[in-house]
Amino acid sequence: MRATLGTILLAVFALPATSAAQANEPTIVVDGVPVGRVGAQAKNPVADGLRFVEQRQAKNITDAAEEMPADKYSYKPTPAQMSFGDVVAHLIADGNDYLCSAATGMKSPDRPKFTGADSKDKLVAGLKDSFQFCATAAAGLQDAQLGDSIPFFGGRKSTRAMAVLITVADWADHYSQMANYLRINGLLPPTAKRAAQ
Asked: How far, in Å, are 46, 79, 95, 126, 169 from residue 118 at the CA level?
């Protein structure tokens, strides 16, 4: 009994010390958002990273789509490039719906086809819906699934990890593209606006 009581007391008194030590670990902050602690033992650091990047890029990309005036959705810097509207339409179906489905295993939603010639309102609404699908799909992703073999781009075998990495790279690529289109048209991209404030 005495040994059991001693063990319980030791555990009770050690718990606050352990919690205090964890609370004193430096916090990792990205764009003003705490995303974890140095030394913390995250169970799903890669899937958590995807969820964080999805939230951030959903905001940046959607804000960029809203920033571009409707009459500039047909703008393209050169004839060989996609128009701004084409970029948004591509992000919905070929980007978010396909890539988030591949990365997570969740079936992509049935949507009407989008084209760059659609109205700004229709494209922005579709973009928001596609990012909501990505958030919902990514919510259940666990790191243990990242090694799963999946059919990817024409049925080639890949891993979920590869789909996650390509998804994140696709968002960065298209946000950069949208930011350049905005700047060429005399508008600040959302991240530049926030940095200037």
From this structure: 35, 19, 17, 10, 26
Of 93, 92, 103, nearest to 150 by C-alpha is 103
Q: Which residue has the tokens 């001693």?
A: 6
Instruction: Quote the tokens at residue 112.
Output: 């009407």
CATH number of the structural domain spanning residue 158: 1.20.120.450
Q: Do 95 and 1 share a structural domain?
A: no
Do 116 and 33 belong to one domain? no
pLDDT values of the chain reduced to their tens digit, one per residue, 197 residues: 444 434 333 343 444 444 444 455 455 555 555 555 444 567 899 999 999 999 999 999 999 999 999 999 999 999 999 999 999 999 998 899 999 999 999 999 999 999 999 999 999 999 999 999 999 999 999 999 999 999 998 889 999 999 999 999 999 999 999 999 999 999 999 998 877 77
Q: How far apart are alpha carbons 49 and 45 in whole angstroms?
A: 6
CA-CA-CA-CA torsion sign (80, 85, 88, 91): negative
Which residue range(s) make up the domain with 128?
43-196
Closest C-alpha among 146, 21, 123 to residue 64 = 123
Residues 84 and 139 reside in one and the same domain: yes
